């Protein structure tokens, strides 16, 4: 499978780009668990200075992807189905609460537009373009919710893991694009239920819709990223 790294580099700082690149290669199997990485080797590989590499490794340690050892560099931790379900559990708890808090703070115009978009995507023909638009609007909805939740701490904690979630989803979609098979990818219909509950002004129903959506997320990720790799 062609690497997705060169296709979709993260916008923003070099540090964020490096974090994204390492995660992509890790989840694609190009980097292995327990593999040792030094600042010097990564700087050569990505043709950057040592400073953004050090910053990237610190961020990767903060989200549980590497362990850093003084004077020895970093070692990639194991990340399989168990770790996937744990991180998705954390995300589900945080984002369900953020959705409850955001209810009533997103404009009717915004919600009307999102209803239109997700209604169309839920029934559209599934192609590479559909996959790319699905990822784009997935990002938009989740970011909109946590930014409108009214809690800086909650927003910060969700955003801290955002690059990890996005990379997992991106690698999954890339694999599906390669085989032209988008079966069992129902996130647009799930997003529509969240938006409809928000539009109805029902915080509990909106939070439950987000909870249900994020219960499905690790199932699809495990199927596409780990079961195929282990088989």
Automatic annotation (TrEMBL):
Keyword Electron transport: no
One Pfam family from the record: GntR
Domain of life from the UniProt record: Bacteria
UniProt xrefs under SMART domains: FCD
Key words of the record: DNA-binding, Transcription, Transcription regulation
Gene3D superfamilies: GntR ligand-binding domain-like, Winged helix-like DNA-binding domain superfamily/Winged helix DNA-binding domain
Start and end residues of each HTH gntR-type domain: 12-79
Alphabetized GO MF terms: DNA binding; DNA-binding transcription factor activity
Name of this protein: HTH-type transcriptional regulator LutR
Organism of origin: Gimesia aquarii
Gene that encodes it: lutR_1
């Amino acid at each position: 499978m062609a690497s997705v790294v060169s296709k979709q580099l993260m916008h923003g700082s070099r540090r964020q780009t490096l974090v994204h690149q390492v995660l992509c290669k890790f989840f694609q199997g190009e980097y292995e668990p327990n593999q040792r990485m030094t600042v010097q080797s990564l700087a050569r590989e990505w043709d950057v200075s040592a400073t953004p590499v050090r910053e990237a490794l610190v961020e990767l340690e903060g989200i549980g992807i590497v362990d850093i050892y003084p004077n020895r560099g970093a070692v990639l931790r194991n990340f399989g189905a168990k770790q996937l379900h744990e991180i998705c559990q954390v995300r589900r708890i945080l984002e369900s609460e953020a959705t409850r808090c955001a209810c009533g703070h997103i404009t009717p115009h915004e919600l009307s537009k999102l209803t239109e978009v997700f209604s169309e995507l839920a029934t559209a023909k599934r192609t590479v373009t559909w996959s790319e638009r699905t990822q784009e609007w997935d990002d938009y909805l989740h970011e909109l919710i946590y930014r409108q939740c009214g809690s800086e701490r909650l927003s910060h904690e969700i955003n801290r893991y955002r690059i990890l979630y996005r990379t997992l989803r991106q690698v999954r979609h890339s694999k599906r694009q390669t085989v032209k098979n988008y079966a069992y990818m129902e996130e647009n219909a799930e997003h529509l239920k969240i938006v409809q509950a928000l539009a109805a002004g029902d915080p509990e129903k909106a939070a439950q819709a987000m909870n249900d959506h994020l219960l499905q997320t690790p199932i699809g990720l495990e199927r596409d990223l780990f079961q195929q790799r282990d088989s």
